[in-house]
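Pilot study result, target chain (288 residues):
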Amino acid sequence: MATLGIPQNTIAILQKYHFNFQKKFGQNFLIDTHVLEKIIEAAGITKDDFVLEIGPGIGTMTQYLCENAREVVAVEIDQNLIPILGETLAPYDNVTVINEDILKVDIVRLAKEKNGGRPIKVVANLPYYITTPIIMGLFESYVPIDSITIMVQKEVADRMQVGPGTKDYGALSLAVQYYAKPEIIANVPPNCFMPRPNVGSAVIRLTRHETVPVAVEDEKLMFKLIRASFNQRRKTLANGLNNSPEIRLSKEIIQESIAGLGVPLTIRGEALTLEQFAELSNIIGRKM
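Predicted structure:
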């Protein structure tokens, strides 16, 4: 089977099927074998592993996954790619392609059926607009996950791993770091894709924490506070919480709770660490 990581092989299969790129699906196919090898290596895939691939495209990465994993399930939303995948993955008997929107797939059930409920590895090349809902969906639905190794827009990868006080720090940074340890594995320039995107990308690996790194009594409340404090970045934490429809607390209780954290009332949400958000949520939770 022709390796799709080689550009002329990708061009040949796309022409054969008269494939048109769909802007709405944010399709950019990888055409760089070094990057593909790096992703496989970063994900640490072995013959013991069951891998869920999100957005296989024409199967470029899927071929590599099939060579290295025990079993692969690839979920592809674009119906036009299904016949192409039928051809490019024909040599492999350890792959199942599902034509579905990943946000509608019962991944917990899949992990149970295919991997006996043991932690799975997720690999994906994600379009910009859907990165956050997919990652949060995987974490929040308590899918048993070992790691998620994904290609995303460089700016999103940066956002996932930064700490307080930086301009990229926000709700996504805190959510990712609550559930996992993020590490950028490689920066990937636009010329590694077809069609060429307008921005750089990065491969980032999120390794699931065995236990969450902070002591929080009400996870949902903590994320409400985090969202409220970043919804209006320029405002103080107190005003952000006060203006949030999700948090129905008096100004006094909000101010009291922030004071209880031992920080100035003028502090902005972007200055708080994950530990401080957890502590604030515990303080507020006890007052509710």
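One observation from the pilot: The chain has two domains: 7-208, 219-287. A full batch analysis is planned for the follow-on phase.
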